[in-house]
Amino acid sequence: MRRYVLTCIAAFLYYSGMVAIVRWWTRLCGKRLVILNYHQASGGDLERHLLYLRRHYRILPLEKALEELYCQQTKRVKGGDRRTLAAVTFDDGYYDNYSYAFPLAKRLCVPLTLYLIPGYIGQAERFWWQEGKQLVALTQLQEVEYEGQHFDLRQPKEQAALTEFINMRLRFSCSIVERKNFLGEIRQLLAVSAQTTEEEKPELPLTWEQVLEMERSHWITFGAHTMHHPILSCLEEQRELQYEIEECRNILEERLGHAVTSFAYPIGQWYHIDLRTLRAVQQANYSWAVTTNYGINTPEAYPYQLKRVESDVCQHWLVLAAEAAGLWGFFSRLRWHPFVRRYLTNAPTIK
Predict the structure, then answer these.
(1) Which of 8, 116, 198, 278 is 20 to 30 A off residue 340, Cα-Cα?
(2) Which residues contact 114 (CB under 8 A, 6 or more apart)?
(3) 150-159, 209-218, 333-342 — which is least confidently predicted?
(4) What is the distance between the alpha carbons of residues 294 and 223, in angstroms, rounded to a whole number?
(5) Is 329 exposed, middle or buried (0-12, 13-18, 19+ CB in 10 A)?
(6) What number of helices (H) and strands (E) belong to the chain?
(7) Does pLDDT of 277 surpass 50?
(8) DSSP letter string over 251-310?
(9) What share of the chain in percent tops pLDDT 70?
């Protein structure tokens, strides 16, 4: 229902001309860069998304787009392409980025940037954030007790509670070793192996052979996304923080044979990026770093906290159009205005 409502709102914004007006206004305001952020590529309508973006934006590989955004020269070439700059990124490195997004990129001539996690590449194992749902779905146990908490897995609510419990423990681990040990304990407790199935293949990590094939095509560029995808601000040891950020780049550069200049923070909201993390990314000599905070970038944007527009291939392309234009952000800010909140929530005002 929520998705249907969002699509209806997006359709109104698009067919009323508001999306076109905002795109036009954005062009008048000077240089801007819209960075789209996807994860998986299959199971939706990525092709229509890319066709829309290709028509209305000037899509470049992320590094080239950033170089142009920060270039001091502002003089426009007469008759040149005046469309707003855009870059399309995919986080994590799922197999379907290779099997589905890569062929589309070549056929539609749309460059993509993939942020990779070397610790998972070629391992044929699930990413840690997939484990909770899969372990609970695969266990044959009816009841589970762990650390004083009891879960009756015959009840859907209890299944959801155990899944959330596992996810939170994995997400906020203070070290990679802690996360690995907890995952091993839960697998043993639920009597579920780490073995994956053929049906899971689109959700599994890439192999190095697939990465190198995409690299040779010149339609795909790559950035760093840590070694094991921890929330960096949760890591207690400074040495491990630096390792996750620096070793990721070292391995990618060794495999790809060229410099890797951009970094994507895992999870990537403001509260996942502390001062330690910012300093470590700078010290690792990255030129840019992208977050998952919503927004459109200007030449004044801080290079180590670049904003992106979160996208999902399951969204209707009309929703993508409104998000990329910046309208979603406008309405999000508008609904928190005191005047609007008063009439939307019927909240009493202080006299």
Answers:
(1) 8
(2) 89, 90, 93, 97, 214, 220, 221, 222, 223
(3) 333-342
(4) 20
(5) middle
(6) 15, 10
(7) yes
(8) HHHHHHSS---EEE-SS--GGG--HHHHHHHHHTT-SEEE-S----B-TTS-TTSB--EE
(9) 91
Does some domain include residue 285? Answer: yes
Closest CA to 34 of 100, 83, 106: 83
Phi-psi region of 229 (alpha: psi -120 to 50; beta: other; left: phi over 0): left
User: CA-to-CA distance for 179 and 129, rounded, in angstroms?
Assistant: 11
Q: Are residues 37 and 119 in the same domain?
A: yes
pLDDT recorded at residue 196: 87
Q: Last residue of some domain: 160, 190, 220? A: 190
Domains held by the chain: number: 2
Question: Do 105 and 220 form a contact (C-beta atoms < 8 A)?
Answer: yes
Integer-rounded Cα Rg, in Å, for the chain is 22
Q: What is the pLDDT of residue 344?
A: 39
Residue 184 and residue 70 share a domain: no
Tokens for 235? 């890591």
The b-or-e profile of 272-290 (16+ CB within 10 A means b, else e) is bbeeebbebbeebebbbbb
Taking residue 298's Cβ as centre, other Cβ atoms within 10 Å add up to: 13
Tokens of 213: 């094939």
Mean pLDDT of all residues belonging to the chain: 90
What does pTM read for this prediction? 0.90
- pLDDT confidence band for 329 (50 / 70 / 90): low
Residue 72: what pLDDT? 73
Query: Taking phi first (over 0 means left), then psi (-120 to 50 degrees means alpha), and beta for anything else, what does residue 286 get?
Result: beta
In angstroms, what CA-CA distances link 341 with 6, 13, 328?
20, 22, 17
CA dihedral 255, 257, 262, 265 (to 10 degrees): 10
In the predicted structure, residue 91 carries a pLDDT above the cut 90: yes
Give the whole-angstrom CA distance, residue 91 versus residue 115. 5
35 membership: H or E segment, kind and range: strand 33-38
Q: Given a cut of 80, is residue 52 above it in pLDDT?
A: yes
The residue range of the domain holding 281 is 31-123+201-315
